[in-house]
Amino acid sequence: MLQQIKGLHHITSMAADAQANNDFFTGALGLRRVKKTVNFDAPDVYHLYYGDEIGTPGSVMTYFPFPHIAAARPGTGEVGETLFAVPRGALGFWKERLGKLGVGNITESEVFGEKRLHFAGPDRDAFALVEVDHDHRAGWLKGDIAEAEAIRGFHGASLRLADSGATGELLGFMGYEKVDGKDDWTRFAIGNGNGADVIDIQTLPSANAARQGAGSVHHIAFAVEDRAAQLEVRKALMDTGYQVTPVIDRNYFWAIYFRTPGGVLFEIATNEPGFDADEDTAHLGEALKLPPQYEQHRAQIEQILTPIKD
Question: What molecular functions are annotated in GO for this chain (predicted)?
């Protein structure tokens, strides 16, 4: 069993409109935009990162807003719901706030003894706020949301799978333990993590496969401290039979990717070097930052990208 993984690093999804996406995460949810850059493989598309003050691993939601992308079709083989942690007693505040802002699909539930407020993003993305005790992470407090209600980062995520057996074994190999289960749900958690420690699997053997599009998660990333730990994880995964990419420099972290038995794309990302690698902490997310290979094309890229109004 691996010991290097410390919970989630980030979750990356797809959207249809950059402005609506930015407004939802920085406005409705009160997160900080910590980086405004472009997709490494499609530099005419933004890559937007939202999180806490410095983009701490375990707090960062990222998006590729593809103009004119078709809507997603939910199903198996994907991340079903992204879970954000909030302090105990905060859900009343969030229910009222999101309701006033016209956010859709607001419902309440209790899962594995945790109170949740479910809601949809601009592209019908599935989210939930979960009341979590003893989460000492700091939220982003420069907006209009107080410390007693601010999002602390991820609590975790749920996976929708046709068969959960092999993915459950993979999570066990990655350092997660099965801690609870009920009906078609199984909960895995990692000890001594970064706070974004939970993966829930919902097994839906008769459901249709998901079709990716606006509102669906592209990949889910797990955190390791540094490149040395990442190489250890890569070797262990490859020795177990997984096809893992070479290490890829993403400017703010190094990444490796592999497809899970259930169809979900997993990434292992380093905590280093961080989002302040090319911007001062006080000004994170303000300027358009380009990967070095695209800097010579800045004028053309800036002409193509629709400016985002903050």
Answer: dioxygenase activity
Place of tokens 């930015």: 22
Could you count the other beta carbons within 10 Å of the beta carbon of residue 213? Answer: 18
Read off the CATH number of the domain in which 300 is found: 3.10.180.10
Strand intervals (E) in the chain: 8-15, 32-38, 46-51, 60-65, 78-86, 107-111, 114-120, 126-131, 153-161, 177-182, 185-189, 198-203, 217-224, 248-249, 253-259, 265-273
Q: Using alpha carbons only, give the angle 218, 64, 265 rounded to the nearest 5 degrees.
A: 15
Distance (Å, whole) CA 71 – CA 17: 12
Query: Does the residue 240 lie in any domain?
Result: yes
Whether residue 143 is predicted with pLDDT greater than 90 in this model: the reply is no
Complete DSSP assignment for 118-165: EEE-TT--EEEEEE-TT--PPPP-SSS--TTT---EEEEEEEEES--H
pLDDT at 80 over 90: yes
> Is 0.85 topped by the overall pTM?
yes
The total domain count for the chain is 1
Q: What is the pLDDT of residues 91-129, one digit of tens each?
A: 999 999 999 999 999 999 999 999 999 999 999 999 999
SS3 at position 270: strand
